[in-house]
Design brief:
This protein has 2 domains: about 5-100 and about 290-305, 3-Layer(aba) Sandwich (Rossmann fold); about 105-280, NAD(P)-binding Rossmann-like Domain (Rossmann fold, 3-Layer(aba) Sandwich), CATH 3.40.50.720. Helix content is about 35%, strand content about 15%. Strand 4 (about 75), helix 4 and strand 5 (about 95) form a beta-alpha-beta unit. The protein contains 12 helices and 11 strands. Helix 5 (about 105-120) crosses helix 8 (about 160-170).
Amino acid sequence: MSGRRRLLALPPLGADLIHHVFDPLGADVIVPAERSRDALHAELADADLVIGDFTGELAIDAAAVAAAPHLAFVQMPSVGVDTVDVDALTAAGVPVANTAGANARSVAEWALGAALDLSRQLSWADRRMREGGWPQLETAARGSDELANRRVGVLGMGAIGAEVTRLFEAFGCQVAYWSRRRRDTGVYRELDDLLAGSDILVVCLPRTPETVGLLDSPRLALLPEGAFLVNVARGGIAPDDAVLAALESGRLGGAALDVYEREPLPADHPLRRHESVLLSPHAAGSTRQSQLNIITAVIDNIRAAVEGRPVANVVNGLGPLIRRR
């Protein structure tokens, strides 16, 4: 394959916007004619650079990789890479990059705000006020607490986990963490020990085969009674049914959820009706600042790939120089 590089852009954005952003980078920019598997595979036949679809609707799975003989690089416009088959891409020799750290502050601030909401019953009191009530005594009776001196467990110590730790410590919380790789800083505890000593558990782990179902019902039962769960990771790490059961039993005093096993969360899902749940539509990282960080990281990497310079944030252990295939 020779000549200009062909960049297939899969994010669910308007074609005019995609061309406005990426045409100046020196590649032929392609947007699928329709958001379907057939259209995706047709365009992959000639594409060598791909910007992935963070929604997973146009997933780069093993079949898509097989349909892309010239594919040389996949750039995800997100921190998570669970909407692409990393193993299949690695086997094909295709580097995959993410935008590590781009939304760390945004997600960490959401986690802190969600913990404050649960601790002070903010959303619950707001709903009662909008219904015409005046739940002054009831709010306190539900267990309104300060964050200071609460024991906070952080699962995952990447960029988001590190920022979560910093923000909660600034509020006077006692923070410890568990991660698949132990860090040189911070208070590390083994997973079950961390759960048993966490008044607030913040989940920041990537979704991998090892983390799916990690926080099942037996693990959630290790938490102190009335603990709070704040999940800013990915759906399935704490299965929705397990979370719901822990809420119903009182093991969880509340949960703030930005992610779910099925997204969008079905309209009739019982989590939508639970009074002790704060719901968010996978938007913890969606601030203007983080979106600017993400698009800047994507532009920088695509420009580097086109110009023959090393790309940043390759997650699958392959070299950062993007070579034609």
